[in-house]
Amino acid sequence: MLSKIRNYFASKTKREKILLLALAWTALFIWFFSLAKRQSALGEKIDSLNAQIESANLAIAQKPNAEIKLREARALIDESKIVKDLRVEAEKILKTGGFSNFSMSFAPDTVMPKMTVRTLGLSLQRDTISHLIAFEQEVLKLAPYMFFKSAEFTADSKGQMSARYEISSFEFKK
Questions:
Q1: The pTM is what?
Q2: Of 24, 105, 142, 173, whose CA is between 20 and 30 Å from 42?
Q3: Is the pLDDT of residue 151 over 70?
């Protein structure tokens, strides 16, 4: 096979030989730079994966410490005060407070391996600021088991206010 290539090359003129060599060298350069580019991309991917492995190993090494902190935090929580049904608890506070003009919407539960977070959107229309403050104080009595994520207020020229709250609660899984 190699002898056939030599015979073919030898049968060519000097100009054709130079062109064939230039073509071969060009092909070799293209091939070399293509391999170098692939090697560089592969090296970057290997570095990225090694960084992810190192990060994961660090997180794994912190697991015992995190579990100790979780147990300590759970010891501070009174299981009897956890809000099991956010809607029922919010309605109880609203009815006790004399609110009649409200609407609720529910976001999907955020489910995590160790806990579930529930979120309720609550709109209170045309009320006084003192009434809204009384509502907030009742919710704050249940903190940290029920808490405000956000609150927005609007008022009209007659002193009536409307409020939009985002209220959350959590529940630990056994």
A1: 0.57
A2: 24
A3: yes
Give residue 40's pLDDT.
93
DSSP state at residue 142 = T
Residue 124 burial by Cβ neighbours in a 10 Å radius (0-12, 13-18, 19+) = buried
Helix spans in the chain (H): 2-10, 14-61, 63-76, 86-96, 129-140
121 class by beta-carbon count within 10 Å (0-12 exposed, 13-18 middle, 19+ buried): middle
Report the alpha-carbon distance of residue 71 to residue 60 in Å, rounded.
17
- Cα gap 71→98, rounded to integer Å: 39
